[in-house]
Write a structure and sequence with these properties.
Shape of chain A: globular
Structural class of chain B: alpha/beta
Mean pLDDT of chain A: 92
Distance between the termini of chain A: 37 Å
Oligomer: heterodimer
Mean pLDDT of chain B: 93
Largest interface: A-B, 25 and 21 residues
Radius of gyration of chain A: 18 Å
Low-confidence stretches of chain B: none
Strand order of the largest sheet of chain A: 6-7-8-3-9-10
Number of strands of chain A: 10
Strand order of the largest sheet of chain B: 6-7-8-3-9
Distance between the termini of chain B: 41 Å
Order of helices and strands of chain A: EEEHEEHEHHHHEHEHEEHH
Order of helices and strands of chain B: EEEHEEHEHHHEHEHE
Radius of gyration of chain B: 18 Å
Low-confidence stretches of chain A: none
Number of helices of chain A: 10
Number of strands of chain B: 9
Chain lengths: ~260, ~240
């Protein structure tokens, strides 16, 4: 267990005019830790995720990242090229809609290989070999490597998006409702896959979800958001088994039992 | 060597915000300790707070006041006051828990469910699976089931997977929430002997056992939880 946080978030707020996107969010994320951000639609969880992943400029606050060279860098004091490089190599971002994270008109293999080429890999055979390896790890048959994601089902596309993100060996992956829009059997398979990969690779991840069962299965720690504020924060088991805040109690008591 | 588990002045209540904020007191002024090699059994009627107490010690329930002191990695950690990351680390290395029901993960084979806590401690996958298999065999779970996910197993089969998962590591504190509730006599006897071995190895055990025979066989001491309950019977 490393004693240095990977991400240090201080008082991040985002305003849309007078409206609050998210307000005064502070936390630290540790290596190997999976943090779930839960809350209903409009609670600010995606705004927060975008502020953390440099996709959206926060109105105030700072986000510091522990670089591979050991230094901390404020993400919003980096130049655009540095941020892009980080996004392409050390980070992954898994979108709810795979079409937002994939290039739909190039082959599955190229989708995975592209990120490798972006960090300087040039050997075609090696790129193809690691693309095949990653397709297999996400349970896509290697003989689909030359097909375009347009020809894939929703679940396969989502798995391909995950492979594309993980091929560069990132240390931090952001996920926005990664299982939203998938039917339950496909969801279970994806959850199991993500859980295994996170464990095996020792990834840190921040997962936005409105599905508390997904949060329970994948996350160590949980933040509950409402109206832009983090209203409850703690060990996932604790937040779900002994929710303290009225809104969290409402969320937990609204889960359907099967 | 300090005592592995000390619970001191712990109180807990639930505030039900969806029921006009009524407060349900669960326990107050809980104080006891469990020594190395000792098995303490929580006693008292249903609903008195036995399971809640285990969940507080494991960190699933927050406490209102008091300390839960755990000997972990050469120091004392107050689990009631520490951060989530430390709680998880204590669970990985020191504090084990066999819950009443197995929370199954879709698609993960029974043998991997059992091997997982060992692998989380850095054990190599092959060795971990070997140990998992040995435990499942000892608990008489048919080998044909090992590679299947436990979601479709019977209650007793799931419970044996759960027990194997809890007993596979060398955790120094083990919490047991009715691990024998849905087992037949033969498997109850296996669990009793597994608990005896843990005691011999110096593990501190705290458990709930409704089965009198098992309780007689494993308990060094019975702690009546009623004394901590606001619903104390005064008569």
């Amino acid at each position: 267990m490393s004693d240095i946080p990977l991400l240090k978030v201080h008082d991040v707020s985002k305003f849309y005019g007078n409206r609050i996107g998210c307000r005064d969010v502070s936390f630290e994320l540790w290596p190997g830790e999976v943090l779930a951000i839960v809350g209903e639609s409009g609670s600010g969880k995606t705004t927060l995720l975008n502020c953390l992943s440099t996709r959206l400029l926060p109105s105030t606050g700072s986000v510091e990242y522990h670089m591979r060279d050991g230094s901390y860098r404020d993400l919003y004091r980096m130049n655009e090229a540095e941020r892009r490089f980080l996004m392409r190599t050390d980070w992954g971002f898994v979108h709810q809609n795979p079409a937002d994270g994939l290039r739909m008109t190039v082959s599955a293999g190229a989708n995975v290989g592209e990120r490798l080429m972006a960090i300087g890999n040039r050997h075609y055979g090696k790129i193809r070999a690691s693309a095949i390896d990653w397709l297999e790890r996400v349970e896509i048959d290697a003989d689909r490597i030359d097909d375009q994601p347009r020809a894939f089902s929703g679940g396969m596309r989502q798995r391909l998006q995950i492979a594309r993100n993980l091929v560069t060996g990132p240390r931090l992956v952001f996920m926005d409702e990664p299982t939203g829009g998938l039917d339950v059997s496909v969801q279970a398979r994806l959850l199991d896959l993500v859980r295994g990969l996170v464990n095996d690779l020792g990834l840190s991840a921040i997962i936005v979800t409105h599905d508390l069962a997904v949060a329970r299965l994948l996350s160590h720690r949980m933040m509950v958001m409402k109206d832009g504020y983090v209203i409850e924060h703690g060990l996932t088991d604790r937040v779900l088994d002994d929710p303290r805040e009225p809104y969290t109690q409402l969320l937990v008591s609204s889960i359907l039992q099967v | 060597m300090p005592t592995p588990l000390v619970v001191s002045e712990v109180s807990k209540s639930f505030t039900m915000h969806l029921r006009d904020g009524i407060r349900l007191p669960v326990v107050s002024d809980v104080a006891f300790s469990v020594a190395s090699g000792e098995c303490v059994v929580l006693g008292g009627p249903s609903g008195i707070g036995k399971s809640s107490l285990l969940k507080m010690i494991y960190g699933n329930y927050a406490v209102d006041t008091g300390q839960i002191l755990i000997r972990h990695d050469g120091r004392i950690v107050d689990l009631a006051a520490t951060d989530p990351r430390t709680v998880l680390n204590v669970r990985r290395h020191t504090l084990g828990y066999v819950s009443q029901f197995l929370r199954t993960v879709p698609r993960v084979a029974a043998i991997d469910v059992v091997a997982e806590p060992l692998m989380a401690r850095g054990e190599e996958a092959g060795t971990a699976r070997e140990k998992a298999g040995a435990l499942l065999a000892r608990l008489n779970l048919p080998e044909a089931l090992w590679q299947l996910p436990p979601a479709t197993f019977s209650g007793g089969e799931q419970q044996r997977v759960n027990i194997a998962r809890g007993f596979i590591t060398e955790h120094t504190i083990l919490l047991l929430d009715e691990p024998t509730a849905s087992l037949d006599a033969r498997n109850r006897a296996v669990v009793v002997s597994m608990i005896a071995e843990k005691k011999k190895a110096g593990v501190a055990l705290l458990g709930i056992f409704h089965d009198e025979e098992v309780r007689e066989a494993v308990a060094d001491r019975i702690l009546d939880v009623q004394q901590f309950s606001p619903r104390k019977i005064t008569a």
